[in-house]
Amino acid sequence: MRMTSVKEFRIAEHATGDQLGEGRFVFTDAYSVFDWGEMPDRIPRKGASLCVMGAYNFERLEAAGIPTHYQGVRTDTGMTSLAEASVPPTEMGIELTQVPELPYSESEYDYDAYHAAAGSNYLIPLEVVFRNSVPVGSSLRKRKSPADVGLDLDQWPDSGVSLPEPVIEFSTKYEEQDRYLSRQEAATVAGRADIEKLSAIATEVNRIITDSAASAGFSHEDGKIECLYHDGEIKLADVVGTFDENRFAYDGQEVSKEILRQHYKRDHPQWVTAVKTAKRQIRDRDTADWHPLCEVTPMSLSSDLIRMVSDLYAAGANTYTGQERFDVPPLKDAVDAVRTTHS
Asked: Is the pLDDT of residue 184 over 90?
């Protein structure tokens, strides 16, 4: 499986068939869009911004009674809470579970083999997606009509639209191309983990993050969770509620990785088209990796765009958490800079 995450993953103690292990995430300044993997540039302070937001959310979720794999942030003096970190951290301590190989042959993934190897201690190979609105660029527009999600509209508008109730969806985690699943398909992929419990956890996580965002002036549009299953318990895994995992808006401007997605769609459409073409071509081949078929590579970002996105991530983290951890302009100024450049 090709990894598209831009977090480094370090193991201190391996998980076993019945015991969780220990490790940490190292948040880098790299970024990824359209499942490409690591892109050509680095965005300063991006990793620290995501680590701060992720830790802040984990600590709020645990206080609300939601089990997570979070153990604290790593500083020069060891593992501690976010409040005790004197500088913005870039490392997060986590519990580890097993992640078996997901075999692929004859154009199919073998989830039975995954779960046979996983037993009762494994990362659930699903992403549970929650949607509060449908912004421009949301994949939901391609898969469902407005009526399917409770909207009294004949077609999708050119601007974003709020949903009457949050929508919960399930997507594959380890397939080369994300694939949305029916609830029945998702239940099979989840293995021993109860799909209704996963849906309930996602709903509660969404509520808490949405409330946190609103209190800081953000609109929380959509996001996802990943979970582990250990000895009958489901715990939140990966990272939740950051500008990479979720879509937020502030004063009508996207404040998330969506800015970079839209940049490439607008300024480098040849690459975006080549990615889509490669993903289509792979369907007829007995291999899951579409990247060798992509005939165009992504271009670098301009230095001005890198600076603006860096300010946006850091100022956004300051505002979301209510903690001035980064020496950057106010979020309103960072938002105005991006909006002026891309209007």
From this structure: yes
CA 132, 51, 198, 36 dihedral sign is positive
What six digits make up the tokens of 69? 């794999």
pLDDT digits (tens, 9 = 90+) for 191-238: 999 999 999 999 999 999 999 999 999 999 999 999 999 999 999 999
End-to-end CA distance of the chain: 38
> CA geometry: angle at 133 spanning 146 and 221, to 5°?
155
In this structure, are residues 325 and 219 in contact, taking their beta carbons and an 8 Å threshold?
no
* Paired residues of 25 in beta bridges: 9, 92
Distance separating alpha carbons of residues 9 and 25, to the nearest angstrom = 5
Q: Point out which residues pair with 13 in neighbouring strands.
A: 22
- Measured distance CA(107)–CA(273) in Å, rounded: 23
The model's pTM: 0.91
CA distance readout (Å), 78 to 7, 23, 71: 20, 13, 11
- DSSP β-ladder status, 104-105 and 108-109: antiparallel
With vertex at residue 194, the alpha carbon angle to CA 188 and CA 199, rounded to the nearest 5 degrees, is 100
**Spacing of C-alpha 272 from chain mean position:** 20
Tokens in use for 120?
Answer: 């009762």
Residue 222, both tokens: 């959509």
List of domains in the chain: 7-342 (3.30.470.20)
Across 12-31, average pLDDT: 95
Nearest to 272 by CA among 60, 35, 97: 35
Evaluate whether 82 touches 55 at the Cβ level (below 8 Å): yes
Residues present in the chain in total:
343
